[in-house]
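Give me the 3D structure for ABC transporter ATP-binding protein.
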Amino acid sequence: MCRLRGGIGGGCAVTSPLLELSNVSLQFGGVTALSEVDLGVEEGELYSIIGPNGAGKTSLLNCISGRYFPTFGTISFDGRDITRLRTDKRAAIGIGRTFQNLALFGHMSVIDNILVGRHHLVRNNFLTGSLYWIGGAQKEELEQRREIEEIIDFLEIQHIRHATAGTLPYGLRKRVELARAVALKPKLLLLDEPMAGMNLEEKMDMARYIVDLNDEWGITIIMIEHDMAVVTDISSRITVLDFGKKIAEGVPEEVMAHPDVQRAYLGDDELEEA
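Predicted structure for ABC transporter ATP-binding protein (274 residues):
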C-alpha cells in the first residue's frame, strides 16, 4: 500500500508505522513477561493480539500505554520515542485505553465518566474560566458537550446518560468505558478484552462499534480478545504471543493456520490426534 503520511509532493513516501515496538522485553525479578517482541501497527489498522492465558498480552498493552516501562527495547508512536513517557503524557498525544477489568467511577453519572476522558483537552486557564461569559470557557464547554453527545449517540447510550455508572448492567458499563476512551480523541485506541463477559448480542454490538470507530472515525485500534470468531472476522492483522514471545504475525487466515499457533492453543497431543 502506498502511504503518504509525512510525504511531500506527488510520489509515494515510505513511512514508519504509527506504533513501533523494537526488541521489547519486560521482566519482573526472575520472571520474563515479554521477550524481544517486535511490532509495527500501521495508521488505520484494526490489529489484534491473541494468545493463551498468561502469554503476555496485557503486559504488552501496559508497555504501550505507559503503565509499565520495558526492561529492554524501545517504543515509538507517531515518529516519537515514548519508551519512558508517563501514562498521562501518552494520553495527551493520543493513546487511549480500556481495561480488562472495568475502571469506571461507579458513583459518578455516565456523562461525567465520559467527560473525565476530556480533561487533557480543556484549554482554558483560571483567568478565562473566571471570565466564563465573556471569555472562551462557555464556548469551549458547549463544544465539549456537543462532542460528548456525538459519542453517546454513536454508542447508543442516550437512555443512560444521567444514570449512575455503578448501577448499570455489565455490558452497558463496558460501553461507557469505551465512550470515555473515545472521548480522549485518540489516534490509537487500546482495547483489553472489550467483549469479555458479554452475551452474543452484546458482542455483536461491541464488534460493530469497534469496526465503525476504525472505519468511520479513523481510529487505529489494537485489541486483545479471546473470541476467535470476532478476531478473525474484524482484524486486518494479528500477532500471536506465547510465553511472552511473538510466535506468528499476519492476516487472520494465515495466522490461524500456523502450526505454532495451533500448538499454542491445542497442544502437541491434540494436534497429533487431529
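The radius of gyration is 20 Å. Let me know if you want a second pass.
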